[in-house]
Amino acid sequence: MATKALSFALSFNDLTNCFSSNPPRAAVAKVSVFTVRCSSGSGERPWKNSDARLVLEDGSIWRAKSFGASGTQVGEVVFNTSLTGYQEILTDPSYAGQFVLMTNPHIGNTGVNFDDEESMRCFLAGLVIRSLSISTSNWRCAKSLGDYLAERNIMGIYDVDTRAITRRLRQDGSLIGVLSTDDSKTDEQLLQMSKSWDIVGVDLISGVSCKSPHEWVDKTKQQWEFSSGKVPGETFHVVAYDFGIKHNILKRLASYGCKITVVPSTWPASETLKMKPDGVLFSNGPGDPSAVPYAVETVKNIIGKVPVFGICMGHQLLGQALGGKTFKMKFGHHGGNHPVRNLQTGHVEISAQNHNYAVDPATLPEGVKVTHINLNDGSCAGLAFPAQQLMSLQYHPEASPGPHDSDYAFKEFIELMKQRENRTKESLPQFSTLHSG
Predict the structure, then answer these.
(1) Residue 312 is a catalytic residue
(2) What would be one Gene Ontology cellular-component term for the protein (predicted)?
(3) I need a surface site. Which of 44, 48, 154, 390 has the fewest CB within 10 A?
(4) What is the pLDDT of residues 372-406, one digit of tens each?
């Protein structure tokens, strides 16, 4: 790097003239010489230049700076209004095929750790944020967000106007976009990529589900346990269908005393019933419920035989299995601050939600009740069918990330299984009857 030396010679008169229009008459000329060294050359700038583009299918182009992985990726852009919990969002399998835009402007300040992950890896297509924290401050922090994404080959961009993009998504609905750091691709090429890709009708569940059955034993750690209710004394066996299940759903079930067997999304209903479970959970998952008719068929063959609980994708599959229809929402619900009214109690819960599809309650058969509604738009947020011992929620009662208002749903599922057990006992012949006469 080049260095230049600049010498300055100033007389005493020069100095005094700087401060006064009438310098002393008898000023003695003295010369002071000093050297200032400054650097010049082609050193790196202390800031990063824009090196990435987000091109949306509506033709808009958003210049940004990249972090995490490099390359070109296509996905559906959705916005998430959560203020915290970006690591749970990154590892939620329900975001497969999507770019998640965080409306909270400052992301990355707590870094990442290995306790808050909701699955074994990141499934989202990319992360879009306004401001990337250049430092981390949290006692559990293990590494920075940028390093974490780079290791998992997930693209991220920052220094982009997320408010403007959010307004566009609210106005026009979810849009397909392309993220790229590849200068060799023109804007027109990226635009054509966005227009030629679609998420509707695509089976995304098979790519996030486990491949073979396994037992789950981990409970919510004691320091994070927030339920004040007592755990039932009985142990109920629950078969959990993995359509993209989050770890904390399983932890909450285990904390409520359940023995859990996790099975793949394609696991036959007949094999599940052979296990003689006390209940079946149909989990959350990504994409279009109409794109997985095999899952709907499985749900149909289990309903009415054992108590069932559906969460998010599981809720939508139950709606279809009962004969109802689902539809794609304009921009969906994504965030940890959605108000929901429980129509059975009148209470309002603040809920964590992540879905782009909803059940149309007008298409459901007689006997199925809407138990919860989203107060932002009135959409169906919960169902119950007492005759079939069925319950479902269109949001995340495990609160990861989000508030704990809806944790009671796991207890209600326990009660469903307990009622079935009591009915079974009542239907069995009594010992005294068997030995009378």
Answers:
(1) yes
(2) carbamoyl-phosphate synthase complex
(3) 44
(4) 999 999 999 999 999 999 999 999 999 888 899 99
* pLDDT single digits (tens) 5-56: 434 344 444 444 444 445 544 444 454 554 444 444 444 556 789 999 999 9
C-alpha to C-alpha distance for 337 and 353, rounded to whole angstroms: 8
Longest dimension (CA), the chain: 140
> How many C-beta neighbours within 10 Å does residue 125 have?
22
Which amino acid type is present at position 245?
I
Q: Are 259 and 170 in contact (CB under 8 A)?
A: no
Q: How many CA atoms lie within 13 A of 53 on its CB side?
A: 20
Number of Cα atoms under 13 Å in the Cβ half of residue 162: 24
Please give the model's pTM, rounded to 2 decimal places: 0.86
Q: Annotated catalytic residue: which of 76, 88, 117, 398?
A: 398
**Which long-range contacts link 404-407 to residues 24+ away (Cβ below 8 Å)?**
404/226, 404/227, 405/349, 405/350, 405/351, 406/340, 406/349, 406/351, 407/226, 407/227, 407/252
| β-bridge pairing 155-158 and 214-216 | unpaired
Chain-centre distance of CA 148, in angstroms?
A: 16
Instruction: State how far the Cα of 204 lies from the Cα of 96, in Å rounded to an integer.
Output: 7
Residues 6+ apart with CB under 8 A from 256: 231, 232, 410, 411, 414
Look up 380 and say whether it is catalytic.
no
> What whole-number distance in Å separates Cα of residue 193 and Cα of residue 211?
31
Condensed to tens digits (0 to 9), the pLDDT of residues 268-311 reads 999 999 999 999 999 999 999 999 999 999 999 999 999 999 99
Question: How is 286-310 classified by DSSP, letter by letter?
Answer: -S-GGG-HHHHHHHHHHBTTB-EEE
**Is residue 396 among the annotated active site residues?**
yes
Q: How far apart are CA 216 and CA 208, in angstroms?
A: 17
> 423: helix, coil or strand?
helix
Q: How far apart are CA 409 and CA 54, in angstroms?
A: 39
Q: How far is CA 56 from CA 61, 159, 194, 196, in A?
A: 7, 17, 7, 12
Q: How far apart are CA 437 and CA 432, in angstroms?
A: 10
Q: Of 312, 333, 334, 349, which is the active-site residue?
A: 312
Dump the DSSP string for 4-32: EEEEEEEEHHHHHHHH-SS--TTPPP-EE
DSSP percent split of the chain into helix, strand, coil, nearest 5 = 25, 35, 40
Domains in the chain: ranges and CATH: 52-196 (3.50.30.20), 205-422 (3.40.50.880)
